[in-house]
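Annotated sample (chain length 51).
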Amino acid sequence: MSNLFDPENTQDFLQIPGLLYIPNYLIQFDHDALLTKIDHAQWLGDLKRRV
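Output written by the structure step:
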């Protein structure tokens, strides 16, 4: 199974106009801090997924 964010796959997989994927844009510390902030945000719970 290939990695979703393998640079060789991003051009074929992410064909969304205006979207740019920059590998390793965030360092691990910033990634973790951002993910924690998102996870602790208020989410709507009335659907089957968080929105």
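Annotation: Helices lie at 7-13, 28-39.
Annotation: Residues 24-51 form one domain.
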